[in-house]
């Protein structure tokens, strides 16, 4: 029962903080005025994708906490999470695609490092982060494209 509580806390906290940040950094007129690449997804897709990813990230974080709360993999998890939560306020709030790129690149590196470190230790956590790595790779390309087009 203790482990179930840890999973619930991690998922609820990650989803809640993500939702709070998302609600407070909604793309507005500034974002709408930017030139975007043809592969830019419609705005409605971001909410469901991020909610799903936050659930997966929360589960992986809970697994790390249960296995070794002070280990390198847990530190990587917290680091990528802090960077994740900074991205929207910098991109949308500060209207700074360049600043956001400075955040998303190390975030992607942390995500990939988390995957690599979990390959031989916790394949479930590794696989939970694969869709996240794919999405953040796409988001990095999108972020860079917006900078280049504007």
Write the layout of secondary structure elements.
Elements: H1 2-23, H2 29-33, H3 46-67, H4 72-93, H5 97-118, H6 123-149
Could you walk me through the main structural features you see in this protein, from its secondary elements to its overall organization?
The chain has 150 residues and is an all-alpha fold. Helix content is 80%, strand content 0%. The protein contains 6 helices and no strands.
What would the keywords be for this entry?
150 residues, mainly alpha, 6 helices, globular
How many alpha or pi helices? 6
Number of strands: 0
Low-confidence stretches: none
Derived structural class: mainly alpha
For the biggest sheet, the summary is: none
Task: Report Rg.
Answer: 16 Å
Summarize the structure.
This protein has 150 residues and is mainly α. It is built from 6 helices and no strands.
